[in-house]
Design brief:
2% strand, RVT-Znf, 15 helices, 2 strands, 3 domains, 348 residues, single chain, Reverse transcriptase zinc-binding domain-containing protein
Length: 348
């Protein structure tokens, strides 16, 4: 059974995924690299052949998709569209930048003037906003056309040597397109399951992947916070099985119940050799309390100082739960905390 969708697993580890490559997005990123080469090297053989056939009337950056185009050219345009989704313009002489449709007001994000374009200005380039010398802004025209963007425009410096405008990639500090940054942008655009603004997630980097603990424990923690453990509550949602109660106390079993609120779990946390006593029932949600649990220090005689004990406690609770279900073998909170401490000590 698939507990986590492929789209979620292809996200980066710091965004809650496992960092698997999404082949469609990766392919689009390479196609965008091809589009970047075509635009920046118009005299190259590849550029001359493709633009000579498909861009006879329209520049490469504006040419539209057509039903009769080849499969290869369709792929090039897919890459071009990805490239343009995060591209901007570095101002030179202003002759190549349309003041309304091109993003030219910022080098950190795609920013265009807001509002509908007046008919008489719709085809203007940035050059039209400059004085005849081509190196200084015409403040009078800017105040007439873009009164709300005046300060932003005046902060940009036109070229003093008539250098051409340059397309830049906003995903890197250098302005040059890279496949890695293009892939991350493609993942963002193809994300069909964005995290709602109100959703509270664990800090994946600090709370899991940077912890000093075993790799199997990190994956186990990832499953916990992704809701990918087959606890009773999750099984009930999928209409699997008839027993959905906690094997350790016969209450409804959820992630928070099993690891925090269960009487058995409460006693395990109470016995943990931390420098402060833990009342697990007072913790409403494991996700929000997790970083605090990982920061708890153990008493010196325990000999665990290089990493947290909390992940091993969760692991030991999970093993005790499974032992009760599949082997009908009971255990005590004392045995669970002893196993967790021994496993952590062995690893650390």
């Amino acid at each position: 059974m698939a507990w986590v969708s492929w789209d979620k697993m292809t996200k980066s580890k710091q965004d809650g995924g496992l960092g698997f490559r999404d082949f469609e997005s990766f392919n689009d990123a390479y196609l965008a690299k091809l589009g970047w080469r075509i635009h920046n090297n118009p005299s190259g053989l590849l550029s001359r052949v493709l633009t000579g056939k498909y861009c006879t009337d329209t520049p490469f950056l504006q040419v539209a998709h057509r039903s009769a185009e080849s499969h290869g050219w369709r792929g090039v345009l897919i890459g071009r569209d990805l490239m343009m989704s995060n591209a901007g313009w570095a101002l030179g002489n202003g002759e190549s930048i349309n003041i309304w449709s091109d993003p030219w007001l910022s080098h950190s994000e795609q920013a265009r003037p807001m509002g509908p374009a007046p008919e008489q200005f719709i085809h203007w380039t940035v050059k039209k906003l400059m004085l005849p010398n081509g190196t200084d802004w015409n403040r009078e025209i800017i105040q007439q056309v873009f009164p709300h963007e005046e300060a932003r425009i005046l902060s940009l410096k036109p070229s003093k040597t008539d250098v051409a405008d340059k397309l830049i990639w906003l995903g890197t500090t250098s302005g040059e397109y890279t496949t890695k940054s293009g892939y991350l942008k493609a993942l963002e655009l193809n994300d069909t399951n964005p995290i709602p603004p109100t959703t509270v997630e664990v800090d994946w980097k600090k709370g899991i992947w940077n912890l000093q603990t075993a790799p199997k424990i990190k994956l186990f923690l990832w499953k916990i916070f992704k809701g990918a453990l087959p606890v009773g509550e999750a099984l009930a949602v999928r209409n699997i099985g008839s027993a959905q109660t906690c094997a350790l106390c016969d209450s409804n079993e959820s992630i928070n119940h099993l690891f925090l609120h269960c009487d058995f779990a409460y006693n395990v946390w109470r016995l943990a050799p931390f420098s402060t006593c833990i009342d697990a029932r007072g913790l409403l949600d494991l996700s929000t309390a997790w970083l605090g649990l990982c920061k708890l220090t153990c008493l010196p005689p325990v000999g665990i100082s290089l990493g947290p004990l909390a992940p091993w406690i969760l692991w030991a609770l999970w093993l005790a739960r499974n032992d009760r279900i599949f082997n009908n073998r009971g255990t005590t909170p004392e045995e669970v905390i002893t196993k967790a401490t021994a496993a952590a000590h062995e690893w650390l």
